[in-house]
Amino acid sequence: MNSQPQKTSSPPKRRILGVDFFVGSGHEAVRRGLSARLVVVPAAPALVDLPMDAGYREALEQADLVLTDSGFMVLLWRLLTGERLERVSGYRYLQLLLAETELRQPGAVFWVMPSTAARDRNLGWLRAQGFVCDESDCYIAPFYRSAGVTDPQLCAMLAMRKPRHVVICIGGGTQEKLGLHLARNCPGPIAFHCIGAAMGFLSGDQVRIPEWADSWFLGWAFRCLADPRRLVPRYLKAFRLAGLMRQYRHLAPTAL
Is residue 219 part of a domain? Predict the structure, then answer.
């Protein structure tokens, strides 16, 4: 997206599978994310859909900041090229983002939640951390059709409330398309942060992941142990990423 003023310096990037990933530090990612229009943190199970899902691919290509959330992708890149990339997970990015003073101002953040149960758990955690927020600062996302993600109702709500930041906490592969739709259709200097399940890791709505596990790329293991029936197949799908990266590396994968 190009609705924000040009930055004084180009962010450090590495093109992988046709997408420009930010490869700087977590603090630098947040500094840039505060003034970005669209921030995404794609995970490996969603990245394998790049060849088939044009809407998802477009969202990643158009985002201002694409973070190296996938530890599997970072490891594969090192094996294939010998280059060690900085990894900034969505979990780490959200921790640093929530530490910013401007997000603690009343009305500064609007939250898109996956369910009422997640909203209640997440709001309880946020208030315990000193955030001033309630149900009116949240929107429960409906079921979006994967082919085309639009939400005029949410756009109208954001136009009325005028938050500075919107944090989208729904599933990967869908949230990026929603973020792009909102970035294109919501006026004003709003930063859209697509952070997926990261909020649930902090609040306990999802399994809590220790910081050391996130640093060692083991968050997926904790999630699988907590919900094996749903998540083991999802992460098994992620192994397809190895074939894509071996074949394409920095090039955009073609449709299968």
Answer: no
